[in-house]
Amino acid sequence: MSIRWRLTAWYSSILAIVLVIFGLAIYGLVYYYTYNEVKSQLMTQAPQINKQLRLIIKGGLFEVPNLDLGLEQGRGIDDSQLYVQIYNYTSGVTKTTQNMKDLSITFPVPSTAAGAVQNEGIRRVNVNGDSFMIIQQPIKSEELGLVVGLLQVGQFTGSQDRLMNRLQNVLVYGSLFALLAAATSGLFLARKSMKPLVKVIEGANQIQSSNDLSVRIEYDGPPDEIGQLIGTVNNMLGRTEVFYKELEDAYGAQRRFVADASHELRTPLTTIRGNVDFLLKMWTTEPDERPNMDEAMIRELSMEALNDMADEGKRMSRLVSDMLSLARADTGKTFDKMPVALETLVNEVARRAQFLERTAEWNVGDFSLLNGIYMDGSKDYLQQMLFIFIDNAFKYTPEGTVRFDAIVYQGQVGLRISDTGIGMDKSEVPFIFDRFYRADESRGVTEGIGLGLSIAKWIIDEHQGSVEVVTRQGEGTTFVIWLPVSFSAPLE
After folding, report:
1. Measuring CA to CA, how many Å separate 2 from each of 182, 193, 378?
2. Which helix (H) or strand (E) holds 383?
3. β-strands 121-127, 94-96: how paired?
4. Cα end-to-end span (Å), the chain
5. Confidence of residue 491 (pLDDT cuts 50, 70, 90)
6. Which pLDDT score is estimated for 105?
7. Could you give the angle at the alpha carbon of 137 between the alpha carbons of 133 and 138, nearest 5°?
8. pLDDT band at residue 363 under the 50/70/90 scheme
9. Average pLDDT of the residues in 309-331
10. DSSP 288
């Protein structure tokens, strides 16, 4: 059974119980007050009538000469009239008032005087299909000291019975109609209130069948529990969509990384294999089969092949090292940090950078403005990051100048590496930190595998820094690495 039907059944059952209790209470109150009025009138009139009776005793028997007790009596049955009957236990004669004679009715009486005493009080009787409420009182003879008769005073209760029947019908059929209307409207409201949940189910099924995480559940109702639930589900879908897209991007980047790494490794491996095959062929060939090659030439060719293999080995080592650094970045691993004196760091980098392979002029600025300035970081990784930028500047500046200096601005230190090299187009700047990305102009012209700037960007991010790029094609490029300062205490 669905939730809609269960809700409808529950509150229909509760409503039915409430209606039954309410109906019984109304019926009981009306019944009590309706018949209690008749009962009170009978209990008031019966003693008075009993006192007015004149008993005449003849030969041990008694009789009532007449029942004209000053009561208004008509020929038709009427609930405003009193109907009086006296039964004589000594003679077995029943006397009634004129209105009972006109209607040809008599009240049932107990068969014995003892039964009359026992049945004294109010009772309901039905005579010829008409309902009466009667009060019974035994008639006692003070002279004989016995119960000699039975006085019965009744009142017609047909109108009260019809009222109660109508009330009963109204309560029963009204309750059934109310219950039916409540169940119908309740089912409608339950369906309406559960409709947003149906939309949640439909949206989930749509996502499950189509894998479309952009689906959202539309809801324009009040911000009640259903609205909050749908809002939570939509937020969850949004977060799931973002996570799924990030996962897809990560998988895509991983596939590209593997493809690029395979491509980059294929070249040095092919070179090494070719040189090995060449050396094997050259040294396994008989001397008479290579008449144009003397010992000096063989030695020279062998050295060239070995140098090529050594260079490719170094290139593979750098590639593997760079890939390990990026793998560490992907796993979220970081490094230990400690206060680093920036002036000492950049001076050491500037000194060692002059020994890098280069064709451009190396120009170093004045780093005395970094005196006493420290930052929290890793000295080794900061040096690696600076060497990556400087080495790139040397590679892409076949002639001209590469300058390294520093600036201090608003609590940050900017380490600036600028060159007058080939530069690049502004459209390429957003991609230069992507793995294996190299500008089209530099592919095949300069050495490199396109991982250096990715590693540098990771190191900068780990130090809560940023990098600024200014470039123009044919005029050079400037990188400014902004790093936060932990404290500054100028030295004397």
Report:
1. 18, 13, 63
2. helix 379-395
3. unpaired
4. 86
5. very low
6. 86
7. 145
8. very high
9. 71
10. G
Across-strand partners of 373?
Answer: 488
Indicate the average pLDDT of the chain.
80
Q: How far apart are CA 152 and CA 64, in angstroms?
A: 14
Q: What residue has token string 């390990």?
A: 324
Q: Are 107 and 152 in contact, with CB atoms under 8 Å apart?
A: yes
The two tokens of residue 237 are 């879908």
Which positions ≥6 away from 411 have C-beta within 8 Å? 484, 485
Q: Assess whether pLDDT exceeds 80 at residue 368.
A: yes
Q: How far apart are CA 177 and CA 189, in angstroms?
A: 18
Is the pTM for the entire model greater than 0.90? Answer: no
Cβ partners under 8 Å of residue 277, min gap 6: none
Burial tier of 397 (Cβ tally within 10 Å: 0-12, 13-18, 19+): buried
- Residue 398 Cα distances to 197, 317, 361, 393, 427, angstroms: 68, 25, 10, 9, 23
CA 462 – CA 464 distance, rounded (Å): 5
Q: Classify residue 135 by burial, with Cβ atoms within 10 Å: 0-12, 13-18, 19+.
A: buried
* The pLDDT value given to residue 49: 78
Work out the average pLDDT over 459-487.
90
Sheet holding 338-341, edge to edge: 338-341, 373-377, 487-488
Q: Does an H or E element contain 348, and which?
A: helix 342-353
- pLDDT above 50 for 445: no
- CA quadruple 53, 57, 60, 66: dihedral positive or negative? negative
What is the phi/psi pair of residue 469, to 5°? -120, 130
Task: Give the model's confidence band at 440: pLDDT under 50 very low, under 70 low, under 90 confident, else very high.
Answer: very low
The mean pLDDT of 409-415, rounded to a whole number, is: 89
Q: pLDDT per residue over 53-106, tens digit each?
A: 666 655 555 666 555 555 556 666 766 788 888 888 877 888 888 888 888 888
Distance CA 477, CA 424 (A): 7
Residues 346 and 370 sit within 8 Å (Cβ to Cβ): yes
Strand order, beta sheet including 130-141: 94-96, 82-88, 146-156, 130-141, 121-127
Query: What are the distances in angstroms from CA 69 to CA 82, 128, 142, 161, 403?
Result: 11, 25, 21, 28, 139
For residue 267, name the pLDDT band (cuts at 50, 70, 90).
Answer: low
